[in-house]
Every structure is written in structure tokens, then in C-alpha cells.
Amino acid sequence: MLSLPDHVLAFMHTFQKAGYRIYLVGGAVRNLLLLGETEDWDFAVSARPEQILELFPDGFYNNTFGTVGIPVETNGTKHVFEVTTFRKESDYTDSRRPDSVEWTDSIEEDLARRDFTINAIAYDGSVLVDPFSGCKDLERKVIRAVGNPDTRFAEDALRLLRAVRFATVLSFEIEAETRESLIRNADRILNISWERIRDEFFRILVSRDPAGGVLLLRELGLLRYILPEVEAAFAIDQKSPMRHHKYDVGTHLVESLRFCPSEKAIVRFAALIHDIGKVPTYRKNPRSGLVTFYNHEVVGKHMAEAIAERFKLSNAEKEKLVKLVEHHQFTVSELQTDKALRRFIRNVGKENLQDMLDLRTGDRIGSGAKPTSWRYELFKQRLEEVQHEPFSVKDLKINGHDVMEIFSLRPSRKIGEILDKIFTEVIEAGLPNDRETLLKRLREVKADQSSKNASSE
Ligand code: ATP
Ligand code: MG
């Protein structure tokens, strides 16, 4: 039987003493049964929001769903316990949100509105309430809709994606009837806002099996609504007389995602879409049979921008996604000059460098190559080196032309001396190497010299 920590039992007892029924519900019960631990503590209670607030005056209630957040402190760490009045939902007209929420006195009714059987178990501290055999489904590792799946997906189409997310995160199977219904109802996902789609999709991306998750989305007919660009890539064959490519573009993208070592959702996302520009740029020479994708990274860059817009990514996420797609074709060669390497770092951005390399690692393994090679290792080592190379006068954000202009000088040794002086100040006195600052400093030096010259005359 489940044992709950003392502070949780004490919390529940406060409600029970006041004559209310309270249950641990949702992910909390699921996680406890499955993993023996939980981070979220969600409760369903027979008390109405105002009655909950009478018991816990520091609770906060600012939604229409009956959920009161109650701050609790255990061993110095702060949590919020979410307590929601038993409720049922009625009349979904838009596959999105219930038209109205009604309180109820029955925990069974409350459990009946929940999405999947494994999320519809309640625990009052001693007895499990499990009207839909969620425990059995947990044991069998099955995602099954509560009640009629067609009805449930029609009510709220986000459940389509939640099914895939739970299946992926937990490594569960979607039960046959639920699965068939999901396929039938896949197009309803378009009723859902992209913010909500993105949140579920990102949870699939950061799971242990993001590639499996994307393939499942595809199997169920959801991928073509969420990422039609990737769906289309499965029809692009890359076999060509001169190039050896094991996979079609779509499979390569999924395999790149599978092997991308980054744990960041946005980098994994970039791995999944890095070659989408190959779909519109595909050309096959009818005589030679040669397949080309000219400029696919430029086309892909614009497609990545559109995807970022659609998924309502933040500016920072968008920028990273687009940069990674735009530059994923970077050259790795022992013949590259330091200058070329520095330009690469500048283009990609220092902050994106490791992510860019992670994408390449996924890209390599995902096309059947070895994770690395001596050439790739040398490249990475040189990237480090050029970043740590001592800074020289040439790296200053001002140059000889600026000096000549400000000091009204013609080319002469004097110019080099002035630049050296500024360089020393940057290296030793911490003068910031930015153009405005350095130009200002040049004018000061010039003014100093003029006044010295004037006083010595
Ligand atoms: P996690 O917190 O890991 O995402 P969870 O099961 O707690 O898992 P939440 O989104 O926090 O998921 O929702 C809490 C509970 O509310 C779920 O377990 C489920 O019972 C119910 N629920 C959430 N979203 C829906 C939905 N769209 N339709 C029906 N029930 C839902
Ligand atoms: Mg939760």
C-alpha cells in the first residue's frame, strides 16, 4: 500500500477534521504507484474554493477551475499543494475547453472527467479509488482513455498529444481502441492553441525517447498537422550514384534527433528539422540520376523561422533554432585557416557552439557515420584553441584608419604606436574592447597630447 509523508498526511487531516473528503489525485498518485515518489502534490477535495480558503487563508485562488494553491514548507523547501474542488465538466463545443465547470460531491464523477485511466486514480491516505482500473493499466503499461475515446478526444483534442506524451515519457503502449480513435480524431489537434501543442511537444522532445515519440506522432497521423515539413521529408529519397545515404530525409531527421547528445529541447528540435530545406530543394537529374539539394540550408533557415513563429517560441529560442539550422552544414577540414574558424564561431555565436557540435554529432550518427573522426576531433580542438589564442592588436575594434582620422595623420609608425598603447590599456587596464569606448579613448589621448604640446611651447 502507498505510504505518504507525515506532512502530507497532516495536510490531508486538516481537511478531514473539518468534515471534508480529500484525495491525492492525478500525476501524484500515478508517480507514487509507478516510481515510489512524486514532485507534484495534487489533491481533489469535497470543499468548495471558499471553504478551502477558510482552512488555509494564505492559499491563492485565481482561476475558474476550482484550484487553490496552498504554499507549504517542508524541511525548509517551499512547495505549492494544488487543491481542486471535485468537479465535472460539461458541453465541450470546440474540442478545447469545457463550456462550464460544475462542482460535484462525488470523487468518482471527478475521476470520470480525467483523461486516461492511469491519471484517474485517487488515494485518501488509506484506500485507493480506482473505478477505471488505472492500477491494472499502470501494471500493463497501457494508456487508455477514460470512457469512450471518441467522445473524450472530441471534448478536448489536447488529449491526443497528451496520450503520445505519456506513452513516450513512460514507455507505455496506447491501448488499441484508444489508438484507433486517436487516428480517427487526429485532425482535431488543429483546434488547440500552438502554445499548448508546443508544451506537450517539448515534453516529448526532452523525454528519453524523443525519436520514438516523433515516430509515434507520425504513425498516429499527428505529425502532418504539427510538423508537416518533417512529415514531407519522409518522401524524399537521398539515394544518389555519388553520395551514399542510408536513409530518406525524414528518417535521417528522426535518427539525428535520436542521437543528438544535447538535453536541451531547442537543440533537439533543431536536430529534428535541420534538413527540412531538402524537401523544396530536391532535384534529380533525369540522365545521371544525381540528386541535389542546392542551398537547402538557406531555404531551411526560412522554414525554421516559420516553424518558430508557429510554435510561438521566445525570441531567444527562435534565434538559436534558426542559427543551428542555418549553419548546420559547416565545413570540418584540417585545411581550414584559423581565420575561417573564427568566422564560423562568429556566425554561429559562441553561446551556440556546443549546441552546434551536438547537432553535428546527431547528424553524423543519424546518417550512419561514426560519432566522430580524427578530423572532427581536430576541428573541435582547434575551435577551443582559436578562442583562447592570445588577443592581438588586430582584434581591437578600432584600426589604423580610425587613428589616422582622429589624429589627422598620414600612414606612419606613429599609428602603430598609438594602437599598441590602446591595446595595452585593453589587456592590462581592462579598457573594454568595444568600438565606441575605444574611439572615445582615442579622442582623449589626442586631447591630452594637444594640451601637453601647448604647455611645452
Ligand atoms: P505531469 O504533471 O507529469 O504532466 P499530470 O498527470 O499531473 O502529469 P497535469 O497536466 O498536471 O498532468 O494534470 C493533472 C491531472 O489532471 C491529470 O493527471 C489528469 O487527471 C487531469 N488532466 C489534465 N489535463 C487533462 C485534460 N486535458 N483532460 C482531462 N484530464 C486532464
Ligand atoms: Mg501535474
**Structural domain tally:** 3
Number of alpha- plus pi-helical segments: 23
Largest sheet: 4 strands, mixed
CATH topology of the largest domain: Beta Polymerase, domain 2
The oligomeric state of the chains shown is single chain
What are the distinct ligands in this entry?
adenosine-5'-triphosphate, magnesium ion
Supply the CATH architecture of the largest domain: 2-Layer Sandwich
Record the SSE blueprint:
Elements: H1 6-17, E1 22-24, H2 27-35, E2 42-45, H3 49-55, E3 67-74, E4 77-85, E5 87-92, E6 98-103, H4 107-112, E7 122-123, E8 128-129, H5 134-140, E9 142-143, H6 149-155, H7 158-170, E10 173-174, H8 176-185, H9 194-205, H10 210-219, H11 223-226, H12 228-233, H13 249-259, H14 265-273, H15 278-281, E11 283-284, E12 291-292, H16 296-310, H17 315-326, H18 338-348, H19 353-365, H20 374-388, H21 400-407, H22 413-429, H23 435-456
Parallel strand pairs: 2-4, 9-10
Antiparallel strand pairs: 1-2, 3-4, 5-6, 7-8, 11-12
Helix pairs in contact: 6-8, 7-9, 7-10, 10-13, 13-14, 13-19, 14-17, 14-19, 16-17, 18-20, 21-23
Bound molecules: adenosine-5'-triphosphate and magnesium ion.
Adenosine-5'-triphosphate is lined by residues 26-27, 30, 40, 42, 114-115, 119-120, 156, 158-159.
Question: What does the model show?
Answer:
There is one protein chain. This protein is α+β, with helices and mostly antiparallel strands. It has 3 domains: 6-140, Beta Polymerase, domain 2, CATH 3.30.460.10; 262-386, no CATH class; 397-456, no CATH class. Helices cover 53% and strands 11% of the residues. It has 23 helices and 12 strands. The protein has helices at residues 6-17, 27-35, 49-55, 107-112, 134-140, 149-155, 158-170, 176-185, 194-205, 210-219, 223-226, 228-233, 249-259, 265-273, 278-281, 296-310, 315-326, 338-348, 353-365, 374-388, 400-407, 413-429, 435-456; strands at 22-24, 42-45, 67-74, 77-85, 87-92, 98-103, 122-123, 128-129, 142-143, 173-174, 283-284, 291-292. Strands 1-2-4-3 form a 4-stranded mixed β-sheet. Helix 14 crosses helix 19 (353-365) and helix 21 (400-407) packs parallel to helix 23 (435-456). The radius of gyration is 30 Å and the shape is globular. It starts with 5 loop residues before the first helix and ends with a helix. It binds adenosine-5'-triphosphate and magnesium ion. Adenosine-5'-triphosphate binds next to helix 2 and helix 7.
